[in-house]
Automatic annotation (TrEMBL):
It comes from Desulfosporosinus meridiei (strain ATCC BAA-275 / DSM 13257 / KCTC 12902 / NCIMB 13706 / S10). This is SpoIVB peptidase. InterPro entries: PDZ_6, PDZ_sf, Peptidase_S1_PA, Peptidase_S55, SpoIVB. The chain crosses the membrane at residues 12-28. Pfam families: PDZ_6 (PF17820), Peptidase_S55 (PF05580). The keyword Transmembrane helix applies. Keywords: Membrane, Transmembrane, Transmembrane helix. Residues 185-420 form the Peptidase S55 domain. It comes from the Bacteria. The lineage of its organism: Bacteria, Bacillati, Bacillota, Clostridia, Eubacteriales.
Length: 420
């Protein structure tokens, strides 16, 4: 009898211990995610725990409507988990993403950007009448990467305007007041231009650039309002690696006429040219960490997607096979297989997943991911989940991809209101 009591007591203690351990594990594993689909809001708690742990949505804050969709993009909810509906266990904020559909891109695009102001990309000595080398702008504190905005209180938008303004100021008063942006701060300096014997003009010793151009790939377009996203990464100046502040810009169709195959230590490249009579053209309104965004006009078609497909939010992206769409010859969009090797959540830049090219033909032609492929849409399980962004320099078969969700966040879609 005593033995039976001991056995029962031990059994009860064992059950209690197991329940306690399971409870602790459940407490630790309560959802950490800050993003979810509407259908994923309530986690699946099996068995008795579905009755013990209750979810209380204590408050909600609606995000502003998207300019890429007439429906609400997201909703933030404060979630409280309570034991038996009484004892608080854990609280957290969940961002519930509403459904959205976009048409994947894949088109090869030519991109031209005019900067806000004129970027300093180098310094050059000015040789005076005595043969002495001088650096007037450098001596005044103007550095490579700075953006020239005004000279003598006049806006400058082109390299020619900078040259003319400096020459005029040198002739008229011998000095020039220059307003420029240095590391996000506005600075004003007085420069003393030097008369250059070689050119017969007053100069301050700078190389400047007012525009940039290149070839990339369209990521998506919204058929409802023709807003687009492309490239998947920020456009920077080739010499300074500084982000280009956009004053004006456009995208048009481009055609690929050659491929420089990627190899270890040397990224490959698409070699293309702009199409003179492009069937589409778009504005560039934003140049962000995850790409460029604006509005498209004309005919933009992807033969693989006649209609928009659902967006796959960050919480849906998983390790496994996927497809990308890009152009490797002419203007023809083709479909290629890749594998998502790793998903990196909670990153807000353009390196959210590691992708590896598995398609034999793409490996044969390009060696993997090459320059100009940036922006190629990534589709997994019938949903648009991201875009190609970077190649691994020492492994052309692999590269980074950005979540489509981060591109949406960086676009103006959450900032603008549109009538339904």
């Amino acid at each position: 009898m005593e033995d039976d009591k001991r056995v029962k007591k031990r059994s009860v203690l064992l059950v209690i211990s197991l329940l306690y351990c399971t409870f602790l594990q459940l407490l630790v594993e309560l959802p950490q995610m800050h993003q979810a689909q509407v259908s994923q809001l309530e986690p699946s708690l099996s068995g008795v725990w579905s009755k013990v742990i209750q979810i209380e949505k204590t408050s909600s804050v609606s995000a502003s409507s998207s300019s890429l969709s007439n429906s609400q993009v997201s909703q933030k909810l404060d979630i409280a988990y309570k034991l038996f509906g009484i004892f608080p266990l854990k609280t957290g904020e969940v961002e519930v993403m509403s459904p959205m559909s976009l048409i994947p891109g894949g088109q090869s695009i030519g991109v031209t950007l005019q900067t806000k102001g004129v970027m300093v990309v180098g310094q050059a000595p000015v040789v005076d009448k005595n043969g002495k080398n001088s650096f007037p702008a450098k001596d005044a504190g103007i550095q490579v990467g700075d953006i020239l905005l005004k000279i003598e209180n006049q806006d400058v938008k082109t390299d020619q305007e900078v040259s003319n303004a400096i020459d005029a100021a040198g002739k008229q008063k011998g000095t020039a007041t220059v307003l420029f942006k240095h590391q996000e701060q506005m600075v004003e300096k007085v420069v003393t231009p030097i008369y250059c014997v070689e050119t017969g003009r007053y100069r301050m010793g700078l190389f400047v650039r007012d525009e940039a151009a290149g070839v990339g790939t369209l990521s998506f377009i919204n058929p409802a309002n023709n807003l687009y996203g492309a490239l998947g990464h920020v456009i920077t100046d080739a010499d300074t690696n500084q982000k280009i502040e956009v004053y004006n810009g456009k995208v048009i169709a481009s055609t690929i006429y050659a491929i420089e195959k990627g190899k270890r230590g040397h990224p490959g490249e698409k070699i293309g040219s702009f199409v003179p009579n492009s069937s589409f053209s778009g504005t560039i309104e934003k140049n962000t960490m995850t790409g460029i965004f604006g509005k498209m006009n004309g005919q933009v078609e992807n033969p693989y997607f006649k209609e928009a497909i659902p967006v796959g939010w960050e919480s849906e992206v998983k390790v496994g096979p996927a497809k990308i769409y890009t152009v490797i010859k002419g203007e023809k969009i083709e479909e290629f297989t890749v594998n998502i090797d790793r998903v990196m959540h909670n990153r807000t830049d353009s390196k959210n997943m590691i992708i590896r090219v598995t398609d034999p033909r793409l490996l044969e032609v390009t060696g993997g991911i090459i320059q100009g492929m940036s922006g190629s849409p990534i589709v997994q399980d019938g949903k648009l989940i991201g875009a190609v962004t970077h190649v691994f320099v020492n492994d052309a078969q692999r590269g980074y991809g950005v979540f489509i969700q981060n591109m949406i966040n960086d676009s103006s879609m959450r900032d603008k209101q549109e009538a339904a």
